[in-house]
Amino acid sequence: MHPTIHLSPDTIPVAPTLSMFDPVFVGIDEFGAPVYLDLVYHNLLDAGEPGGGKSVLIQNLVAHAFLCHDFTPVLLDPKWVELGMWMEPADALGGIFVGPDIEGGLRVLRRLQKVMDRRYAWLVAHGRRKFLPTDLIKVIGVFIDELAYYTATTGTPEQQKEFIALVRDLVARGRACAMPVIAATQRPSVDIIPTSLRDLFGYRAAFRCTTPNSSDIILGHGWASAGFNAQTISPTTPGVFYLIAEGGIPHLVKAAYLSDEQIHQLVDYVTWTHRSGQRDSVPLAA
Ligand SMILES: Nc1ncnc2c1ncn2[C@@H]1O[C@H](COP(=O)(O)OP(=O)(O)OP(=O)(O)O)[C@@H](O)[C@H]1O
Ligand SMILES: [Mg+2]
Predict the structure, then answer these.
(1) For residues 264, 266, 267 and 270, what is the CA-based torsion angle, rounded to 10 degrees?
(2) Which positions bind ATP (predicted)?
(3) Cα 16 from chain centre
(4) 50 Cα–ligand 2 center, Å
(5) Is 54 annotated as a binding residue?
(6) Per-residue pLDDT of the chain (286 residues; tens, 9 = 90+)
(7) Which of 135, 197, 240, 253 has the fewest CB atoms lying closer than 10 Å?
(8) Strand partners of residue 33
(9) Following DSSP, what letter does each residue of 240-285 receive, concatenated?
(10) In angstroms, how far is CA 284 from the centroid of its own chain?
(11) Of 67, 1, 54, whose CA–CA distance to 262 is shortest?
(12) Which of 185, 147, 145, 182 shows the shortest CA–CA distance to 163?
């Protein structure tokens, strides 16, 4: 009898080596220098008018995350077409995808709140204040493409209120316990992003806006009159946005772009490298 190994006969999968603690490449600034985000310890608000490039930016972040060995995905996308592409690998990684279903979204957020409480209990018990890469903990990345759908469009006022409260709690407390939130919205109005919620997002990306006021709602009051106004971004250059990071001044960035084909290739790759129970058993020696 021959011993067996569990490998596909003709190829050997190369496991992803990126970590969620690594800097995430998002594009280039106006001087051509690469721009990276530190996703684990920051939440990102991604806002601006339709067609500005919000989902393209989210795809860059999601693609990085799926190539990491320490990522658990939570994807909410009422339009299906953006994050829905990652549904299969999300399943393979033990994560979840929610479509246009506010009750489903609420269930997931309530569960995340419990996970967050447990993670904090662990940190307290170990005399720690945040997770580090050496903890080998899974980073639960919560990606919401079109926040307004859940907070202002669908469901009852009670459901919407609960959704906002849960997102606020996650945004306020999730950072240190490796549960960052990345949320996009077309309508940067105060009813969707109350100032108190906006200020909890350490990173804010303002894509083209229709008014200086909308731009200020994303970046912070006063930036438009100081010359950082997302209304001035040309509609012919989608993907350009003002990025403000905690404490800094906004700067212009052009997001990297993944084509549908590239995303499908990444989805296939990630699904394949995380597949379980489907590998052929081949004899070690004939
Ligand atoms: N960084 C980029 N580089 C090149 N093209 C881009 C970039 N970002 C966006 N585009 C172009 O703009 C289109 C719209 O982008 P995207 O779907 O991200 O907009 P959005 O802000 O998510 O819009 P909506 O609010 O309707 O969802 C893309 O299909 C693409 O053609
Ligand atoms: Mg979009």
Answers:
(1) 160
(2) 48-55
(3) 18
(4) 7
(5) yes
(6) 444 444 455 655 566 679 999 999 999 999 999 999 999 999 999 999 999 999 999 999 999 999 999 999 999 999 999 999 999 999 999 999 999 999 999 999 999 999 999 999 999 999 999 999 999 899 999 999 999 999 999 999 999 999 999 999 999 999 999 999 999 999 778 878 878 888 899 999 999 999 999 999 999 999 999 999 999 999 999 999 999 998 799 999 999 999 999 999 999 999 888 776 544 444 433 3
(7) 135
(8) none
(9) EEEEEETTS--EEEEE----HHHHHHHHHHHHHHT--S-PPEEES-
(10) 42
(11) 67
(12) 147
Residue pointed to by tokens 């994560």: 95
Contact 93, 66 (CB under 8 A): yes
Atom of ligand 1 nearest to the CA of 58: 18
Judge if the beta carbon of residue 53 lies within 6 A of ligand 1.
Answer: yes
pLDDT tens per residue, range 230-284: 999 999 999 999 999 987 999 999 999 999 999 999 999 998 887 765 444 444 3
Q: Is 248 annotated as a binding residue?
A: no
User: Taking the CB of residue 210, how many other CB atoms lie within 10 A of it?
Assistant: 12
Amino acid sitting at position 79: K
Cβ of 13 below 6 Å from ligand 1: no
Query: Would you say the CB of residue 277 lies under 6 angstroms from ligand 1?
Result: no
Is 225 known to sit in a ligand binding site?
no
Please tell me whether 73 is known to bind a ligand.
no
For ligand 1, atom 14, name the residue with the nearest CA. 51
pLDDT the model gives residue 147: 94
Ligand 1 pocket residue status of 206, Cβ below 6 Å? no
Q: Which CATH superfamily is domain 4-246+255-283 in?
A: P-loop containing nucleotide triphosphate hydrolases (3.40.50.300)
Tell me what percent of the chain is helix, strand and coil, each rounded to the nearest 5: 35, 20, 45
Q: Whose CA is nearest to atom 27 of ligand 1?
A: 50
Closest ligand 1 atom to residue 184 Cα is 22
